[in-house]
Design goal:
It is a single chain. The chain has 17 helices and 22 strands. It is of the alpha/beta class. The chain has 4 domains: 156 residues, Alpha-D-Glucose-1,6-Bisphosphate, subunit A, domain 3 (Alpha-D-Glucose-1,6-Bisphosphate, Chain A, domain 3, 3-Layer(aba) Sandwich), CATH 3.40.120.10; 111 residues, 3-Layer(aba) Sandwich (Alpha-D-Glucose-1,6-Bisphosphate, Chain A, domain 3); 114 residues, Alpha-D-Glucose-1,6-Bisphosphate, Chain A, domain 3 (3-Layer(aba) Sandwich), CATH 3.40.120; 117 residues, TATA-Binding Protein. It starts with a helix and ends with a helix.
Length: 551
């Protein structure tokens, strides 16, 4: 271990307020575990547009009290630099992950010590409620302690700006610059007159707004629901009941927050098998629709019972088409809809037919919520199960999206139809749009280096064909594309057959490839159309797996 690293470790330990974390680092030093010291110090977490997210552990590469203190000092300095009056207050929320309460306490103490007004959420609550409160209070910023759908060992720190949405460049760079230069902060406590607890009346304002939009008088629809051991259980089950859905079967074993997420190594509704317990509960209760939130309830997964009695998990894009079809039917003159460059292209076609302005954004909800540019974002979504169905929350919201999908299922059922019937209708009208993903997960140390090497290789030598279809266009997104800001990623078009986007994840250490195969509208049997698209999709996927060295 060189002198420079020894100095960095010493400086970190001197600033670390956590006795246990200091002891962990000292034990590594005493044991001469250079490899582990390098893992914790060589690649520190850096504040990005997704804030911070990583494993809870001692050292600058992990989420810990010292990391959170520095990040919060960075936020205070950022507000001062951009000229936002901190007197408007910062909303502070947390989920129920391991470490969330402790990190929440650090955020509150640093803000109060810096003379910043704090609006603290009264208990662990869904991320969308923090986002709502930022807007409802006209706050200077919002901070949410959450790692959303990441593995159980992770935690994170999410930052909302004065507009109520997640920050975008260069704001992340400003926060990081100040955080990296942070020294020992002054700390305040909750006895300060600057400290306020967010009232139940304010939270009730969110509920009443969403119920006014999506409640039904009474519904016979049979539902099942799971929060996947996250913080959405109590809030969502009460919302469904108040919205008129009295026939709701809860996945009782998953209703209480549990930071270990038993049985769910990846508590993400997108992951295979994660909805199995929910589907089993739905099957037992006779439900026709399963709704699932991720651990901080900003995402929505769903599964539906088919006419044959089997269960089909809906893709994120399919939920987006369903919710988008309602938003477009109800759109007003100044409305806009938006989705990302890696999401399905169908929403653009739906919007064109409805005469509603449409925007394609970069990946991430921070871009979607800014797409309206002064107009009203009637609907926005990303294929990773994120949906914005009402502009009073300037972020993805799995609670309101669940209400909206339940309302649509109810309205269709009144006419003898199902969500699957609506999907058949949409793909008959706009063509089959088949989609899939591939992921290459890496781990530190050197994980980001591995991702960079893979990206450099495929950028330098893109394939000539995928699935037997020639690439018609190769686009390096780092050079910008169709007015979008430069971003790391590659877009390969397969003529009229579809496209592939390859990019590193912004929130997890993995490389992701997004495939979409598109068919022309046809009078052929929709099942046969889907089979043809699926065959090409699998061929493209197999070629990508080889190209990216995926299993």
């Amino acid at each position: 271990m060189n002198d420079e690293l020894i100095a960095r470790v010493g400086a970190w330990m001197a600033a670390d307020p956590d006795e246990g974390d200091r002891a962990t680092i000292q034990a590594l030093l005493d044991a001469g575990d250079d490899e582990e010291i390098h893992r914790r110090f060589d690649e520190p977490l850096r504040f990005g547009t997704a804030g911070l997210r990583g494993p809870e552990m001692a050292g600058p590469a992990g989420m810990n009290r010292c990391t959170v203190r520095r990040a919060t000092q960075g936020v205070v300095a950022w507000l001062a630099e951009i000229g936002v009056d901190a007197g408007a207050g910062v909303v502070v929320g947390r989920d129920a992950r391991r470490g969330s309460e402790s990190f929440n306490d650090e955020v509150v103490a640093v803000l109060l010590g810096a003379g910043v007004v704090v609006h603290e959420m009264p208990r662990p609550l869904p991320t969308p409620l923090t986002a709502y409160c930022v807007g409802a209070l006209s706050a200077a910023a919002g901070i949410m302690i959450t790692a959303s759908h990441n593995p159980p060992a992770d935690n994170g720190y999410k930052l909302y700006g004065p507009d109520g949405s997640q920050i975008v460049p260069p704001h992340d760079e400003i926060v990081e610059r100040h955080a990296s230069a942070a020294t020992a902060p002054a700390l305040g406590d909750r006895s300060s007159p600057l400290h306020h607890v967010v009232s139940e009346e304010l939270l009730e304002g969110y509920r009443e707004h969403m119920l006014a939009r999506f409640a039904v008088a009474s519904s016979d629809l049979s539902l099942a629901y799971t929060p996947l051991h996250g913080v959405g259980g109590e809030e969502m089950s009460r919302l469904l009941s108040r919205a008129g859905f009295s026939n709701v079967a809860l996945v009782e074993d998953q209703m209480r927050p549990d930071p270990t997420f038993p049985g769910l190594p990846f508590p993400n509704p997108e992951e295979p098998g994660v909805l199995d317990a929910g589907i089993a509960r739905a099957e037992m209760s006779g439900a026709t629709l399963l709704l699932a939130n991720d651990p901080d309830a900003d995402r929505l997964g769903a599964a539906v019972r088919t006419a044959e009695g089997a269960w089909r998990v809906l893709r994120g894009d399919e939920i987006g088409w369903l919710l988008g079809s309602v938003a477009l039917a109800e759109a007003q003159d100044d409305d806009v809809v938006a989705t990302t460059i890696v999401s399905s292209s169908m929403l653009e076609k739906m919007a064109a037919r409805a005469g509603v302005p449409y925007v394609t954004t970069l990946t991430g909800f921070k871009w979607i919520t800014k797409a309206a540019d002064g107009r009203r974002l009637a609907f926005g979504y990303e294929e990773a199960l994120g949906y914005a169905v009402d502009p009073c929350v300037a972020d993805k919201d799995g609670l309101s999206a669940a209400l909206a999908l339940a309302r649509l299922a109810h309205d269709l059922a009144r006419h003898g139809l199902t969500l699957l019937d609506r999907l058949d209708e949409l793909e008959t009208r706009y063509g089959v749009h088949a989609g899939a993903q591939l992921s290459l997960r890496v781990s530190a140390p050197g994980g980001r280096t591995v991702l960079g090497e893979v990206m450099a290789r495929v950028r330098a030598t893109p394939p000539a064909t995928l699935g037997g279809v020639a690439l018609s266009e190769v686009i390096d997104l780092e050079r910008g594309y169709n007015g979008l800001a430069p971003t790391e990623g590659l877009l390969w078009r397969l003529g009229g057959a579809g496209r592939v986007v390859v990019r590193p994840s912004g929130t997890e250490p993995k490389l992701k490839a997004y495939i979409e195969i598109v068919g022309e509208p046809s009078s052929d049997d929709i099942g046969a159309q889907r089979q043809r698209a699926s065959a090409l999709l699998e061929a493209v996927r197999a070629d990508l797996a080889t190209l990216l060295a995926l299993d």
